[in-house]
Amino acid sequence: MDAKAYTEKILTSIRECSPGQTEFYQAATEVFESLVPLLEEEKRYQEHSILERIVLPERTIIFRVTWMDDSNTIRTNLGYRVQFNSTLGPYKGGLRFHPSVNLGIVKFLGFEQIFKNALTNLQIGGGKGGSNFNPKGKSDAEVMRFCQAFMNELHRHIGQTRDVPAGDIGVGAREIGYLFGQYKLLTAHFEGIVTGKGIGWGGSFGRREATGYGSVYFAEHILNQHGDEIKGKRCAVSGAGNVATYTIEKLHSMGAIPISCSDSRGTIHHPKGIDVKTLKAIKEVGRESLAKYAELHPDATYIPLHNYPEGGHAVWTLPCDVAFPSATQNELNFVDAKNLVANGCILVNEGANMPTTPDAYEYLRAHGVLFGPAKAANAGGVAVSQLEMAQNASMQRWSFAEVDTRLFGIMKNIFDTAYATSKEFGDEGNLLMGANIAGFRKVADAMIDEGAV
Ligand code: NDP
Fold it and tell me: Is 277 inside a domain boundary?
């Protein structure tokens, strides 16, 4: 069968066996379309049924989470852990707590994670998990009881050489602490079974900053390749969580101007540059709305969600040189891509997972906008998670500077790999294709070595 027909056959089979999993289908389509030139050249992937195997999670765990709220009412949520692929190492990937979480979302994230983790060149497989639990508006005690109930089931399936979850949307230092504490209580083992731990109890310096810093390093590598640099660039950033905050912090330190941030209720535009201290105080510490930012900085503008332009997002209407979508999937659509191009944006660098819709991506490419794909651009988080695992296993502690230097090198290596692969397959600079092929090839070759399992 020719390569295109082979990919289409597998995509059809996903549609049939997992109906309604739109985001998973979107993620698989993007990867498979990129793989066609490789599959044409290398027949052995088809001979070993790699696509058939790689789209199926090795294991999917779905469980009920029962917990008690502050008014002593019993509440229920669904918990998920999708252990997608362990060819290169223990399953690794975050947990997301958000009301939108369902099996299709967890599978899209887990599928992406396989290739992202392979690109880091570290020994980690791909997995992802989460729950439709909404931490917003819950007390600390409720969040703790939920995390404990979640771990009551999850602990049976994880382990430091088996599956090591981390944070994602709605899961930060507080949740990781409660999850770790409950694992310890249940098993009587003090082990590195999650990453993103506190510095005082097994965490790594630089893990909190890693995804955002890594994303800016990746953007710098792209710009350097084109004889340019991030310094002096006006950067539109979406999101106001872990990835966005540390993207903004690193942009400042590299001499760029991060002019925006956003949360699920609105966007802040601060032309002279987002004040990181205020941002952290409002979102990391206070868990409040960004509306407060404009009260504290009268020269900033707050654009509430209901004032967003028709079919688009306020943050992408702001004139900028570089865009860093760092909130959630499909947050940068066709209308947004048109606005960015019209305003002179030269690079879109994905901090979030799959933030750019396929039609937006096509529009950006057709108009010569450079593109840092999520699998590569946001791989810094999982890379430093693996460094946390390495420190735990060897009972060592590396300095912030040491971790940051390694992170910079890993991001450079990922860029070089994606770039070289794009060149090898005749589309120099197409980093989406380069990253997908390079990540896939590493996993697929190892799958062949490990036999039909
Ligand atoms: P956080 O929960 O820390 O922050 C998410 C931010 O995005 C919040 O400001 C949130 O708003 C906003 N947001 C979330 N969902 C929506 C939505 N549907 N519409 C508008 N705004 C939304 O998550 P992270 O920063 O950790 O993750 C952000 C993205 O980066 C995700 O795609 C994640 O998968 C990806 N990622 C994260 C990594 C990590 O290390 N944390 C690693 C690699 C990728 P509000 O404050 O109102 O909730």
Answer: yes
208-266 residue pLDDT tens: 999 999 999 999 999 999 999 999 999 999 999 999 999 999 999 999 999 999 999 99
What's the number of domains the chain is made of?
3
pLDDT digits (tens, 9 = 90+) for 148-169: 999 999 999 999 999 999 999 9
Cβ of 279 closer than 6 Å to ligand 1, yes or no, is: no
| Model confidence at 306: pLDDT above 90 | no
Do both 97 and 174 map to the same domain?
A: yes
Residues 241 and 143 in one domain: no
- Ligand 1 nearest-atom number relative to CA 381: 40
* CB of residue 282 inside a 6 A radius of ligand 1: no
CA distance 166 to 181: 14
Domain presence at residue 32:
yes
Domain-terminating residue out of 349, 368, 387: 368
Same domain for 72 and 39:
no
What is the CA(8)–ligand 1 centre distance, in A? Answer: 32
CB atoms within 10 A of CB 136: 11
Ligand 1, from 119, 164, 264, 283: best to mutate by most atoms within 8 Å of Cβ? Answer: 264
Q: Is 267 in the pocket of ligand 1 (CB under 6 A)?
A: no
Please give the average per-residue pLDDT across 346-360, as a whole number: 98
Q: Is 283 a catalytic residue?
A: no
Range of the domain at 220: 210-368
How confident is the model over 27-64, as pLDDT tens digits?
Answer: 999 999 999 999 999 999 999 999 999 999 999 999 99
Structure tokens at 307: 């004032």
Strands 301-304 and 266-269: antiparallel
Which residues does 103 contact at the CB level (< 8 Å), separation at least 6? 18, 21, 60, 62, 80, 82
Beta strands 322-324 and 234-237: pairing type? Answer: parallel
Which position among 92, 107, 116, 128 bears the catalytic label?
128
Ligand 1 in reach of 352 Cβ (< 6 A): yes
Does the C-beta of 385 come closer than 6 Å to ligand 1? Answer: no
